[in-house]
Design a protein that fits this description.
The complex is a heterodimer. Helix content of chain A is about 0%, strand content about 55%. Chain A is mostly beta strands. In chain A, strands 2, 4, 5, 6, 9, 10 and 11 form a 7-stranded mixed beta sheet that branches. A 4-stranded antiparallel beta sheet of chain A has the order 1-3-8-7, with no helix packed on it. Chain B is an all-beta fold. Chain B has no helices and 11 strands. In chain B, strands 2, 4, 5, 9, 10 and 11 form a 6-stranded mixed beta sheet that branches. The N and C termini of chain B lie far apart (about 40 Å). Classes of the chains: A mainly beta, B mainly beta. The interface between A and B is medium-sized, with 26 and 25 residues.
């Protein structure tokens, strides 16, 4: 099976702009979770989508949003970018979510200048 | 806030030695436990998972789980320089999500294997 894919892999944006990141999960997986990873902060949970519904949401401001399509592909959007949004954004695919294992994509490295 | 605690390291071991990585967790209801390896600049890679008390072996890796002590460990036998990475412990959130998500991750232990 093909693994999790994320596009783009690298992105440079300016403060105030918005950005959309895309994730295609492993075939047959219905749960997609998004994480932000920064040095010293570890993995911080953003949200989880399952069957096109947001099932869980982390403690991030409303500038961070996402959605999932009927084919399980997911997108996340960050509006009004801030310097502190510079991070590695990781998408993780899981068969069902919950207590099941998660498989990470390669990530999108976002730099905000 | 449920927590997963790991020693940040760095843990330095000589090539060929056994590396022992430890993790404790606060959610007594957790049932699934995972170890991820993350090389610098890369994404986490799932290397082991364990659900039952005791040991689970996969090649040079052994995961050990003690639910009574809320402790999970990863042993790497015959450590190689290519094992040098950050190892993340993850535990399922018994409440199935919420603001912390389905899996709660530790901040990782950095392992360095010296030739």
């Amino acid at each position: 099976k093909a693994g999790v894919t994320q596009t783009p892999r690298y992105l440079i944006k300016t403060r105030g702009q918005q950005v959309t990141l895309s994730c295609s999960p492993i075939s047959g997986h219905r749960s997609v979770s998004w994480y932000q990873q920064t040095p010293g902060q570890g993995l911080q949970f953003l949200f989880e989508y399952f069957s096109e519904t947001q099932r869980n949401k982390g403690n991030f401001p409303g500038r961070f949003s996402g959605r999932q399509f009927s084919n399980s592909r997911s997108e996340m959007n960050v509006s009004t970018l801030e310097l502190g949004d510079s991070a590695l954004y990781l998408c993780a695919s899981s068969p069902q979510g919950g207590s099941y294992e998660q498989y990470f994509g390669p990530g999108t490295r976002l730099t905000v200048t | 806030q449920k927590e997963v605690e790991q020693n940040s390291g760095p843990l330095s071991v000589p090539e060929g030695a056994i590396a022992s990585l430890n993790c404790t967790y606060s959610d007594r209801g957790s049932q699934s436990f995972f170890w991820y390896r993350q090389y610098s600049g890369k994404s986490p890679e799932l290397i082991m998972f364990i659900y039952s008390n005791g040991d689970k072996e996969d090649g040079r890796f052994t995961a050990q789980l003690n639910k009574a002590s809320q402790y999970v460990s990863l042993l790497i036998r015959d450590s190689q320089p290519s094992d040098s990475a950050t190892y993340l412990c993850a535990v399922n959130n018994a409440n199935y999500g919420g603001s912390q998500g389905n899996l709660i991750f530790g901040k990782g232990t950095k392992l360095s294997v010296k030739p």
